[in-house]
Amino acid sequence: MQLYNLKENFVDDMPYIVTDKGTLYTGFLTEEELKELGYLKVIYEDYPTNTDEFKKVVQISEIKDDTYVISYEIVNKNLDELTALFKEKTQELLDAKAREKGYDDILSACSYAGYDNDFRAEGESFGIWRARVWKYGYGLLSAIAEGKHKLPASFDEILAEMPTLEEVHNG
């Protein structure tokens, strides 16, 4: 049985408790008896489904009556977590676009910009686009942190506003 130790402040799986009166099997003890021994029965509420990439599930633990309840709440990710998500998603986007054009990744595409070759113009376009994308993203994160921009509903919403390779290539 999962029990919360009131003295030590932790949850542990305890099939029995050894006392000076003997070994007591926790499954047969009442909540009152457990509390007298310094323990509370642990109750886990259902874990919620989170489909929002800008939110996370946090655990909330509290004592209610004679039980220790572990529940969950869906909350917004903090700026550090949003920044990490943005970096991951943006790198995936940049690499995927480069792969569409036959390169290994964005770095491979950009590597052709530095010297005369048949792919130089495309390499330069990738490099300019990559810089614009990162500049846009960090500007957006800064605006969100300062309260000047609302949190987008999804990463797709960010993508819709982000500079495109075609804008660089055709412009």
Description:
A hairpin with a 2-residue loop joins strand 3 (16-19) and strand 4 (22-25). The termini are far apart. The mean pLDDT is 94. The strands form 2 sheets. This protein has a 5-stranded mixed β-sheet. The protein is built from 6 helices and 7 strands, in the order E-E-E-E-H-E-E-E-H-H-H-H-H. The chain is α+β, with helices and mostly antiparallel strands and 171 residues long. The longest helix is centred in the C-terminal third of the chain and has 26 residues, at 120-145. It is elongated and about 85 Å long.
Overview features:
single chain, 171 residues, alpha+beta, five-stranded mixed β-sheet, two-stranded antiparallel ribbon, 6 helices, 7 strands, 42% helix
Which regions have little confidence, pLDDT < 50, spanning 5+ residues? none
Shape: elongated
Q: Structural class of the helix and strand makeup?
A: alpha+beta
**How far apart are the termini?**
67 Å
Number of H- or I-type helical stretches:
6
Query: What multimeric state do the chains show?
Result: single chain
- How confident overall, as mean pLDDT? 94
What does the main sheet amount to? 5 strands, mixed
Record field, number of beta strands: 7
Order of helices and strands: EEEEHEEEHHHHH
Tell me the helix content. Answer: 40-55%
Rounded radius of gyration (Å): 27 Å
Neighbour order of strands in the largest sheet: 2-1-5-7-6
**Portion in beta strands:** 15-25%
